[in-house]
Amino acid sequence: MERLAVQPQLVDRVYAAIRDEICTGRLAPGERITQDGLAETLAVSRQPVLQALLLLKKQGFVCDTGRRGLIVAPLDPQFVEHVYQVRAALDGTAARAAGTERTADATARGAALIAAGRDAARSRDVARMIAADIDFHRFVYDLSGNPLIAEAASLHWQHIRRVMGSVLQSDRSTHIWDEHAAILESIVTGKADEAERRARAHAEAASKMLATQLADRVPEGTKKSA
Prior knowledge:
226 residues; mainly alpha; 3-stranded antiparallel beta sheet; 10 helices; 4% strand
């Protein structure tokens, strides 16, 4: 087991497993975590857990809390706002580029993703709703023809997954897919300026809702997640 602990692929698997537990809320904000507990749960030695936690701490998913060791980082309204500012810029850039490229099969592929998203919204299955939402935005990134957009967005999406459920379970869940459909329409009709404007507005609306909800939940003085 100790030999395996130094293998990068094992550290990657442990990192992904812990990150997903945090992003889905199974490890809740503020929850205490230990190397021993995670190693036992994941059936690995402490070494890959330690390396994974160092990376998660650097990325803002976990943080120190005095003698208690590490906890899952609380979500902070200002941090969410900053993440969505980056996302609005990336999404807007991707939508504009996609509207310029106008890939031939974009209409059919996009329509299928939107249909799947509406079906997920009707199911009220939060995991499905989050996956469908991310699938649509990654589709737009692909259409842009710029692989660096998806790469730059990948870390931010993991943070966004932690708070996405609040928006997707709200009354706004139906409007989200109407907004996606409008973005797609602008892209496939070659209206690049409009596609960018709609993509930015979509991200900014989600940011405002999430920041408001988090401001009501986070106690004053809570440590920021990044």
